[in-house]
Amino acid sequence: MTRLPKPPMIECRYLGKRYADGQNALSEINLTIERGELVFLTGHSGAGKSTLLRLIALIERPSRGSLKVNGYELAKLPDLSIPRYRRNLGMIFQDHCLLPDRTVFDNVALPLQIAGAEPRLIARRTRAALDKVGLLRKEKAYPATLSAGQQQRVGIARAIVNRPAILLADEPTGNLDPKLSEEIMRLFLDFNRVGVTVLVASHDQALVHRFGERVIELKQGRLMA
Amino acid sequence: MSRYRTPRQPIREWLQVWLRQHRDAVLKARDYFRQSWLTSALTMIAIAVALAIPAAGLLAMQSAGQLFDFDTPRQITAYMKLDVDGQRLADIAKVLTQRPDVDKVDVMTRQQSLDEFRRQTGLDDALDLLPDNPLPAVLLIHPADSIRDSAALAGLRDEIRQNRSVEDATIDADWLNKLLALIETLRRLAWLAGITLAISVLLLIHYSLHSQIIRRHEEIQVVKLVGGSGAYIRRPFLYYAILLGAGGGLLALLMLKLALVLLAPSLQALSNLYHLEFTLSLPAMFAIGLVIAGIILSIAAALLTINALLRRIEPGTH
Q1: Long-range contact list for B176-181, CB < 8 A, 24+ apart?
Q2: Whole-structure pTM value
């Protein structure tokens, strides 16, 4: 079997997103993110960072241009394939989107339960994910009893529990103080070191430039050179 | 794009995943029921009433129909004019007997009529006071088996009436036909009530699911974000609806059974009064059908509600 060179992980060509109200959230984005890269996406709020992440997560569909993830054109991916596509992504949000009526363990295990994984595998992987974010001892706690930083780490554990190829984080440190913020970013660096492609959106310029990784800036829906 | 399609799994593993997911969905449905047990129980009772009312009607009609299931005595009585003599009477009887739609004709002369009347009433003295025999000669016409429905019977009666020697002709089973027509009307009413109440069962389950789904709006969004398929999200709600429908059906059965037990003594008294073999029972097939009706209605309501609603709950919509 001949091995073809693997396509870039994320590839945008003249990508544009125009909302129904006529607002151009993204225009002519040309961007390539290679496998195993860690990229910070920065810019003021409303610059289009979230929109780009939402397009990659298929929460929105592109209006123009092409968006390929792992070589597959997202504009052509049928609605029915979206759930399976999302299982290869890990998503982290500013408001962490945890389910308040479930324990930390059940929140983190959710992606595995959805995939119908074996209970023993679920327990092993969930504890491994919680261990990575340093919350193994909190597995029986409910999200409301945790601090903001701990809640965010639960969200990260849930995003990595089924070992996604891509990790997307939208303002993951938005509610955290500088010290906690740096801790969270270091976690992403750790995941990146083991081969995960990571895309982190943050408006905090000082923070994102601290790690010496690639930084992309968006302004009014366009990429800055 | 194998990566985003269902990978080829061994059938055993696929079955295990399928079973696990369905078991989880059933457990979740049970949780939904527990978390809002009062609303769920009330909905179940409402469904039970909506199923029990038309079912009771159908059962009653079925039992009433069995009352008249015996071969109904159908004959036409032709009352002759008083001036018809014995010879003419015999002639008319002979002509009638030759008709293909007539099986046989019994002849009763005026004297026989009087004797029969005396025998039945015992009014000898009163009759002796009369100067003449006031009773007409009578022909009892038994229609052929080919005359089944009451319209054909009425046609035959009308033809007999046309005869100049006949004063009047009546169908003896008239009252029975009227009663059967009434029962048929009631049976249709029961079906109509059944359809109306089936629609209300659909609505009850619809509202119940609607509030369950709206309440879990956030959870559904999160599940969609981490890759839960439509089927995965739908399943617990579907099982919840089936739980309501099946529970409603079983409860309806219980209500019917209770009603039968309560009605039994008075029905027995009624049967004894009229020397009738009348039993009101709950056949097994009917019972199973009732529960299945509840389940089918709940699945229909669930599919209509869930699909429309879940499509609207996408991540990023609020």
Answers
A1: B176/B68, B176/B72, B177/B150, B179/B68, B180/B68
A2: 0.74
